[in-house]
Specification:
globular, 52% helix
Length: 67
């Protein structure tokens, strides 16, 4: 399984890990539905929403590995 990284854009995350969409939406990161999702990285989205990107990446990968 490919791990999610902060350098991945939202479109790439949605394609490789569609189950991550629910987690991101629960956090209020509606970037997954934004036209900018093809260009914006997870790091850029996390910073815009005030999240610690390293914690977010760890949480996403931990939750995805449990499924």
């Amino acid at each position: 399984m490919t791990k999610i990284t902060k350098e991945m854009n939202f479109n790439e995350i949605m394609q490789k890990h569609p189950e991550a969409i629910e987690i991101l939406l629960e956090k209020g990161m509606h970037c997954v539905g934004c036209p900018m999702s093809m260009q914006e990285t997870l790091e850029e989205g996390a910073l815009a929403h005030g999240f610690d990107v390293e914690k977010l990446v760890k949480e996403l990968n931990t939750k995805l590995n449990k499924k």
